[in-house]
Design goal:
- By secondary structure, the chain is mainly α.
- The protein folds into two domains: 5-136, no CATH class; 138-181.
- Helix content is 77%, strand content 0%.
- It has helices at 5-16, 27-37, 43-55, 60-98, 100-103, 107-134, 143-155, 159-178.
- Helix 3 packs across helix 4.
- The radius of gyration is 19 Å and the shape is globular.
- The protein starts with a helix and ends with a helix.
Length: 181
């Protein structure tokens, strides 16, 4: 499909329907659409942009379409991708908010939400595994993501502090070790 504002909007609209659980659930469908189906991005460009978006402050589900849309089509792409990504959750939010008290007690809604949780986790794990393969992490550097995950999960340290600490460590490594070579 050729890249135009409508096709970009529709691509992010389809992915936006998966943001009920988390913005990370959209990574795999977006990779499929942007890289595999439409060839608008290379796998490497997608991974690079995903890394930048993950390091950005703010909400991932908003940063992702804004950054990728801008990369693909400038400010028009930003508006088109963001509108597409945010439309489904906004509609769902408005509908659920208007009848939340009635819906939360219904067995079918509760069952759906309980079933959706593992599916969202599966989408996130799939995205993580694909990123892991392309990240260049080897046995000598595996301690970085594992240590970061354990520090966040077990000690409750803010991911922001982890990113800042690793940034400082990377800069120091570059200055002290790589400059000597």
């Amino acid at each position: 499909m050729p890249l135009n504002l409508f096709s970009l909007f529709m691509t992010f609209l389809k992915a936006g329907g998966l943001t009920i659980g988390d913005g990370y659930a959209t990574v795999t469908p977006l990779r499929q659409a942007l890289v595999t189906q439409n060839h608008w991005l290379s796998e490497e460009a997608f991974e690079e942009q995903l890394s930048v978006v993950q390091a950005m402050p703010g909400f991932f589900a908003i940063n992702l379409p804004v950054y990728m849309g801008h990369h693909l089509m400038g400010w028009r792409g930003t508006l088109g991708a963001a509108a597409g990504m945010l439309t489904p959750p906004l509609i769902i939010f408005i509908v659920l908010a208007s009848c939340f008290n009635t819906l939360r007690e219904q067995f079918m809604i509760d069952s759906f939400l309980r079933g959706a949780r593992p599916a969202v986790v599966g989408l996130i794990v799939c995205a993580c595994l694909k990123s892991w393969r392309r990240s260049g992490i080897v046995l000598s550097t595996v301690w970085i993501p594992v240590g970061a995950a354990l520090t966040i999960g077990l000690l409750g340290v803010s991911p922001t502090l982890i990113v800042l600490g690793l940034t400082v460590a990377g800069l120091l490594y570059g200055i002290l070790v790589l400059n000597d070579k």
